[in-house]
Specification:
Distance between the termini: 210 Å
CATH architecture of one domain: Sandwich
Largest sheet: 4 strands, antiparallel
Shape: rod-shaped
Organism: Cercospora berteroae
CATH topology of one domain: Immunoglobulin-like
Mean pLDDT: 73
Protein name: Mid2 domain-containing protein
Keywords: Membrane, Transmembrane, Transmembrane helix
Length: 264
Amino acid sequence: MAALEVLQSAQRATLEFTAALEGSGDLKAGESVDVAWNTPWELTTLELWRGPARDGSFAVDVLAANLTQDVTTYLWSVPDNDSQDTPFQLRLQKGDRPNECAECVASTSSFQIESAASRQTSPTTDTPSSTPAAPSASSRPALSREVQLGVGLGVGLGIPFVVTLIAFIFLCRRKRQRRQHQIQQLNNVHRRQQELMPERDLRFSTGAYSSVSRFSEKSYHGPFEFEDEPGKVKPGWERLFGRNGLPFLAAPEKAKDTRGLLRH
């Protein structure tokens, strides 16, 4: 029993970590780490040091302060790290003063903490996740061939259709122009007939007077016996003509008979 107490007191004579972090690699944010140590002091403080920074300063987080001598373990939850280049250290220090002596401080070696964001964005080496990408690359040529075939069929079938449509439109336009030309000709003929109708009516209305004028002209067979000169009646023959110089037809003879009856 006495030997065990001597051994324990000898172990407590030095402040040190018993569960060292060296060789464990970078720690991952969010995981739990068992930290153990020995201390000869009645009060001990556990700290997390971050740094040094570019200006040589350190950021200190107190994990557990003034732990008694019988408490020599601590379950540490690794925090997230914003900067992958910043080193970390766990540090033990005598809780009560004076605490500036060399035996009053113990530290671990520097280590890195891998952030959760860097683990999500880091490439994985799982083969099942990378194998589905292979069919997509091989399917691109097939898809392009289908597209090319569709474009070729569309162009091959579209050109005859376009040519047929243009020919149909041309024929319809030509037929319509021909019909308009025929209608225009009919309108011109009808307009010409309407223009000629007044001249025809004038000729028809003056036909009776033209016969009278021809009667007074010189006969083709020579002068009649009652003509003295062409167009003049001989003296004594006036009773055969009216006041206007036109010959009586049948009415003067009836009038002559009537006058003879009245004398009786």
